[in-house]
Amino acid sequence: MKRACVIGWPVEHSRSPLIHRYWLKQYGIDGAYEKEAVSPKELAQFLGSLKQRGYVGCNVTLPHKEAALQAAEVAEEAARVIGAANTLWLDDSGRLNAGNTDAYGFITNLDAAAPSWNEEVRPVMVLGAGGAARAIVHGLLAEGAGRIVLANRTRGRADALAGAFGPSVTAVDWQKRGSALAGCGLLVNATSLGMTGKDALDLDLAELPPDAVVADIVYSPLETELLAAARARGNRTVDGLGMLLYQAVPGFERWFGVRPEVSPGLRDHIAASLGEG
Ligand SMILES: NC(=O)c1ccc[n+]([C@@H]2O[C@H](COP(=O)([O-])OP(=O)(O)OC[C@H]3O[C@@H](n4cnc5c(N)ncnc54)[C@H](OP(=O)(O)O)[C@@H]3O)[C@@H](O)[C@H]2O)c1
Hints:
35% of the residues lie in helices and 19% in strands. The chain has helices at residues 16-26, 43-48, 65-71, 77-82, 102-113, 131-142, 155-165, 225-232, 241-246, 249-256, 264-273; strands spanning 2-8, 31-37, 57-60, 74-75, 87-90, 96-99, 124-127, 148-152, 169-173, 186-189, 213-216, 236-238.
């Protein structure tokens, strides 16, 4: 029986077991997916003994994403560029491989939920400059986004992120996040603002073109205030749950040998666990 897990500290909140167990059952695979609470002190030892613990690989959540990349012997390009890993697997030679599927998850969901979002070449506004924003910028550039504007509360982090990706990514002050929406074809919230229990995202959408797409990567609540406001003024919206589901696809395929489908049934199953639907 093949076994995989998610490691984090804390790990209790992770939805990954629900997603992977749903697929294991759907495809009739003799496998298991566990939760492992691993402290930063234990990480190196845990990853070094993955095989002895009976695992073929794992997902990695906070705070281990950067350290997991460092611990891996082989890293895919996306993980190297993003500087963090969320998916690990042992290859046939027993080497620990690292990947980052957040960019894949974000773009695949965007393509599915808002086809032709990139038909016209227009600037993209990304709010945030943390790990998720970095993955999204990488994914958008790989998709041919011509210009990305970053706004982040801490301006220095936005400048650093823009600097890492070259001249097509620029930063503006957080206070200018509303006015900088003029002419944008896509707005992405990659901050934690708007999440249940966090501060609201205070953003005036008046300058955003009515045919722009608005994506929020926060998935609890499923319809954030940002998405509700965007929908009310006629913008197409993309919620964060799809990204969470699609980012899980490559790991499942690596560990269990089947490329799983992100189906409405899976979406309903995870939405119900969030108290939605
Ligand atoms: N849907 C998915 O699959 C998916 C995947 C990954 C992450 N996420 C979600 O995306 C969010 C960001 O994740 P992350 O890993 O990038 O986290 P992170 O590295 O901690 O970054 C957090 C971001 O939110 C900003 N922020 C936090 N509190 C703020 C406040 N009060 N006012 C203004 N900005 C604030 C931070 O700005 P500063 O730089 O100024 O602190 C930073 O840009 C989380 O809610 C996470 O759950 C969703």
